[in-house]
């Protein structure tokens, strides 16, 4: 079996990668065990130098890696540059903070001395998606490696060149052989890797369906998992919000990465009194966005990553319009090469429509109208997802109180939901469990060991 790197802007096959044979996979798993043995014995100072070296390589070659991301999955190149820079930030952050986050904690007991220590767990399998092909990997790898674990990467099959590049960066940065390895395998072989006794834990960012399969397999093997799955993030605009700023940020929050983000704003829940005014401003900002070649710096919206993803998005829009949604802009597939889909704005959206009930993974913005805060919170929470949410109001205390009632893993007041190395990131309900980033993220894949000395 081969994996093809395809340019979604043209449909052109860029490169072909051979899948690992069974013997190559066995060699990789054994190398991971050996790599963990060596890496876990290093000091924090030694690990710090490797992560700092990786950060330096990312910054030195930002343009090259950004072009690779743009070429392989269609991200506008200016956004791809930001993705690479954020990876460097995560490496530096954990290089600086990791030792403090994992310091032993003294506990008063009847012992002469007792404490809790955070010890590395072992090789961790990372099953990662295509939409942020560098960031998703580095936000998992930086804390996991700093904690002294090894990592095996099973990346999405449509970004094999990005996966190979990441492995090269960390090898050049000085990781011992086997400590970080790219497994070029299909999804059908993931179960066997999870079940291998040398693999101690799994982290997955991906679809709800993929999360269920991974969780079931890991649970049967009694192995720790962290799941960051889909999202249908609500973006609440209360009647006293700064509509200019809310509309401007809403346009970015919906269309970042051409709308292909788990934490993109996907349901715009707006107070009736200001809905018409907000829609006018929102539409004006959306109309300013340029759809086109992701390699050109003036492009805001690139192609969807695969043709089947675009087809699903168009079906969601078409069926929602048939169900009564008002199509204000977009909604038609453009002719020509590439998997492009225009920015689309829908008003009058109600529950039961695909754009309301399903996750929309593309530049489609559905607007719901509600009479008051109670209705806004109730609608926001009537979703099986619970990743992030945003609340907009001139009264920050009011917005914070509304935000605390949202059933989500992260709340942003008068701002756009985003991941930040300094804050734990993750969701609840069908959006998954566990946390990445922050102090909580680096402790997820450690053995929290109690030590009692008589």
From TrEMBL:
Phylogenetic lineage: Bacteria, Pseudomonadati, Pseudomonadota, Gammaproteobacteria, Thiohalorhabdales
Protein name: Succinate-semialdehyde dehydrogenase / glutarate-semialdehyde dehydrogenase
Keywords annotated in UniProt: NADP, Oxidoreductase
A family per Pfam: Aldedh
Residue stretches making up the Aldehyde dehydrogenase domain: 3-451
GO molecular function: aldehyde dehydrogenase [NAD(P)+] activity; succinate-semialdehyde dehydrogenase (NAD+) activity
Family in the record: Belongs to the aldehyde dehydrogenase family.
Keyword Oxidoreductase annotated: yes
């Amino acid at each position: 079996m081969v994996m093809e790197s395809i340019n979604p802007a043209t449909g052109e096959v860029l490169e072909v990668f051979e899948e690992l044979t069974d013997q190559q996979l066995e060699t990789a798993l054994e190398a991971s065990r050996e790599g963990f043995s060596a890496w876990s014995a290093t000091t924090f100072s030694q690990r710090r130098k490797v992560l700092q070296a990786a950060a330096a390589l990312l910054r030195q070659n930002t343009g090259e890696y950004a072009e690779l991301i743009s070429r392989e999955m269609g991200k506008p190149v200016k956004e791809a540059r930001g993705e690479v820079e954020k990876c460097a930030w995560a490496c530096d952050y954990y290089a600086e903070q990791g030792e403090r986050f994992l310091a032993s904690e003294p506990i008063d007991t009847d012992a002469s001395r007792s404490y809790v220590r955070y010890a590395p767990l072992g090789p961790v399998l990372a099953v990662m998606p295509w939409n942020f092909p560098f960031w998703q990997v580095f936000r998992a790898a930086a804390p996991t490696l700093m904690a002294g674990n090894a990592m095996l990467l099973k990346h999405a099959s449509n970004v094999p060149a990005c996966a190979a590049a990441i492995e090269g960066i960390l090898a050049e940065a000085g990781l011992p052989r086997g400590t970080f390895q790219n497994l070029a395998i299909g999804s059908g072989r993931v179960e066997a890797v999870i079940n291998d006794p040398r693999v101690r834990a799994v982290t997955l960012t991906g679809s709800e369906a993929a999360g269920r399969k991974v969780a079931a397999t890991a649970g049967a093997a009694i192995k720790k998992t962290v799941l960051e799955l889909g999202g249908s993030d609500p973006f609440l605009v209360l009647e006293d919000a700064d509509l200019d700023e809310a509309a401007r940020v809403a346009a970015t929050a919906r269309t970042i990465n051409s709308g292909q983000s788990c934490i993109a704003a996907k349901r715009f829940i707006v107070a009736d009194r200001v809905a018409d005014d907000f829609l006018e401003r929102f539409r004006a900002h959306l109309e300013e966005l340029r759809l086109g070649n992701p390699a050109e710096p003036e492009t805001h919206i690139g192609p969807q990553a695969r043709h089947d993803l675009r087809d699903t998005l168009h079906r969601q829009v078409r069926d929602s319009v048939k169900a009564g949604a008002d199509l204000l802009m977009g909604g038609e597939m453009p002719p020509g090469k590439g998997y492009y889909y225009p920015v689309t704005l829908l008003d009058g959206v109600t529950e039961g429509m695909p754009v309301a009930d399903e996750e929309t993974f593309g530049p489609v913005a559905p607007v719901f109208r509600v009479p008051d805060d109670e209705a806004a919170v109730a609608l926001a929470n009537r979703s099986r997802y619970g990743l992030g949410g945003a609340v907009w109001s001139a009264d920050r205390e009011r917005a914070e109180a509304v935000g605390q009632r949202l059933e989500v893993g992260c709340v942003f007041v008068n701002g756009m939901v985003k991941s930040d190395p300094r804050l734990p990131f993750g969701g609840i309900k069908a959006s998954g469990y566990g946390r990445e980033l922050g102090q909580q993220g680096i402790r997820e894949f450690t053995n929290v060991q109690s030590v009692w000395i008589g």
